[in-house]
Design goal:
- The mean pLDDT is 92.
- It is built from 14 helices and 18 strands.
- 42% of the residues are buried.
- It is α/β, with parallel strands linked by helices.
- The termini are close together.
Amino acid sequence: MKQLNILICGGGCAGPSLAFWLARAGHHVTIVERFPVLRATGAQIDIRDQGIVLLKRMGLLETVRSKRVHEAGFSFVDAQGRSKATIMANTSGKGPQTMTSEYEIMRGDLVRILYDATRDSVEYIFGKTVEHFEQDEHSVTVRFSDGMTGTYDMLVGADGQGSRIRAAIQPADAPDPVRHLGAYLAYWYISRISTDEQICKLYHVPGSRMIMSRTHSPTEGQAQFLLRDDSEELRSMPRASLDTQKQFWSSRFHGAGWQTERFIQGLQTTENFYCAEAVQIHTDTWSKGRVVLLADAAHCPSPMTAMGTTSGLVGAYVLAGEINQNSDDLPEAFANYDRKLRPFINDIQSFKPWMMRLLLPETGFAIGLIHFFAWLLVFLRMPEFVALFIPENKGGWQLPEYPPLEKTKQEI
């Protein structure tokens, strides 16, 4: 096996996951991250299906378990806060997860776990990113944002759904990789009150709106507003000033009932606010020469699928396995990565427009139907049936095996 000098652009979850496997196999890995320090912040995320298997293979499952958010399940509530149906998390260890995964964790905690698992074997450089690169058949030469340059055997773009590296390798006639789903979301931290429970609560509001609340610590919780609106003028909202964004969300949800005013009040003072359009990334080009894309940069599935973190972990493992097996033929490694992973990605990205209308219904009548069918599912104990008889792996896709990655560097 040829040992490679690899640069990864992006220090979130997927980049360090890839670095974990590559460093274990004996490759030299550098991660550049544009933030000046480790970005160990963010909302509650979940790990599902094949992602749980991979954390076990990494030896990190128990560490993740120790940092879990202990969310018991999720509940649909009405304007008075009354529960219409509650579906508990599947903690049986068998079958698929419900909306609440057995492994709920704050993004910052997972970032920290992955960083701690790689900090001694991977070089981290904070406060700069890749500005430009050129490649030939032997190497990739990178110019960084601080003016420095470096030469590497390959470059990985793990720089998110707005990836600049993706833009640089796309064919000139390629269609726009961003698929707009016609929805927007915002979340922020709020102070916890005595009546908050360890249950995710979903409150639908007429006008294609939804409010979600979660509790992740003894003192803090999270509020999330979701809105279905495909108007062009809203697409610039996530790039507007912070005050403009907060004013927009406050005005669109003011008077919506339940605990809306409490959440809006928390919005005014929060230091942990995030606003984004719900999109997917679809591109036929995951690599070019010695440059390859990973996770959201290649195939963002959108928050609506609850598979973003898991798909990043899976993609990192498959890419590392193929690089390690074909370190002297990277185009072959990248072609295999595409061929093996794309069926899984196609499956989790099969989010149809009607699903968004179901998630964020327009009328009170439609909301009532959702509450009724959710109640009926619980009454018939369908979640328990699914856990017992439905396989957990998405679409029957089987996670590949790469035995050399399971060995430590010393064993190799």
